[in-house]
Design a protein that fits this description.
By secondary structure, the chain is α/β, with parallel strands linked by helices. The chain has a domain of 93 residues: 2-Layer Sandwich (GMP Synthetase, Chain A, domain 3). It is built from 15 helices and 27 strands. The strands form six sheets. The chain has a nine-stranded mixed β-sheet, sandwiched between helices. Helix 10 packs across helix 11. The protein is globular.
Amino acid sequence: MSAPSVFAEGSPPEIPASFNLAAHVLAAGEAVPDRIALQILRASGAERWSYARLIAAVRGTATGLLGEGLLPGDRVLLRLENSVEFPLAFLGAIAAGLVPVPTPAGLTEPEITKIALGLKPAAVIAGEGVSLPRDCPARVIPAGRLKGWEALPPAPWHLGPAERPGYIIYTSGTSGQARGVVHAHRAILARAMMHQGWYGLTATDRLLHAGAFNWTYTLGTGLMDPWTLGATALIPAPGTRPEQLALFLKRFDATLFAAAPGVFRQLLRATPALSLPKLRHGLSAGEKLPETTRAAWEAATGTAIHEALGMSEISTFVSAAPHRPADGAATGWPQPGRHVAVLGPDHRPVPRGEPGNLAVHRADPGLFLGYLDAPEDTAARFADDWYLTGDTVSMAEDGAITYLGRDDDMMNAGGFRVSPLEVEAALARHPALAEVACAEVPVKEGASVIAAFYVARAAVTEDELCAHAQASLARYKQPRLWIAVDALPKNANGKANRRALRQSWRAP
């Protein structure tokens, strides 16, 4: 009989009694002040930040925020474009003991107003032209003010229990409401399990991340993780085209390349032949990596892509790695120090090889503290000592995890999880729509989009529907397909059957 689907290898990092996440991230850089911490890549060259400048800017930002009258524990909403001010504000707030809340710049006014209503931030750091919450009493700090704070005296690191809130990120919930995911300062310690369990990262690496500064995938994998080891982060400037990425990878001697699967596809389409002598391998996360993309990358570069599986509540925790590449359909293995299980409906481990709900042990230092002001929702995601991710997987005899899909209707849009309920609620406000249901559907091998299936009560054009969606939803949540139907399939409770919509869909 197969062993139960439980896997634990190695030990998690020790949690210190007194700790600050930002101080931990920049500690290695203190020892190498002249080393380049960050290069912002442009066709004309690169903007360089040494560790000395980066640390001064972070601690000066902390001084500036405290000078605004903010107190440790206050929440600071970040509404910033894709610029270096984003990580400076994030780490500067944490250095001062504040709790930053990064959000995508593309959120519309209704979306960010709904978030701010529950968050109750003490301040908003705002970039020019970014939507701000309506009727929010928080003070607004223009992003331009951060440039002057770099020269301020350094604030002392705010030390305290590693278990206290460090930052909050928002994710789409299955209820259709964006939920605040509260992470502790200790979360950065868990990321050390990725350094060899996924990246193969060293202090001499030059890691190029193709995402925007204001994406949490970039913030963690592209910035904080290399900085924790004293390595160099390479970030393309806003507006970089796929064909430019190939040039940047070679010109700036990137040794690691991290991106979402869609970026790998675009890069290969723009530049089918790639000569990257310094590159060791690629890193993929955000959504399932198609095998065709992996094979095309390996043929073009002679290097592997190591994939990772994770979620907002814990970041990545299952991955392949240079010392342990995954073959076939498997994503990889639980990283050393993780304690993972595959549970059945009775919340007991299923035999290896059988599908079940992927679960992470409560003791994992990377696991979130809970959903903001929602103890019942938090408790509902736990079964005894296990956090239930909602991902259906199977575990092989050697512990390898194969992703089989979600056990709900959540959609993936370019690495962001999106609730169909949230999109449907926004679209249903259009007077011409009688009913609407949304689902993620494939449009070609390795690529899928959000589709809106609707029953119209009056004539309406696709342009009108697109304009309506644009006014109330961030771009990544907006449907790319609009499909008129005579009726929506329903389940036994009379609700839209999105699974039936997905199964009935056939791409042209």
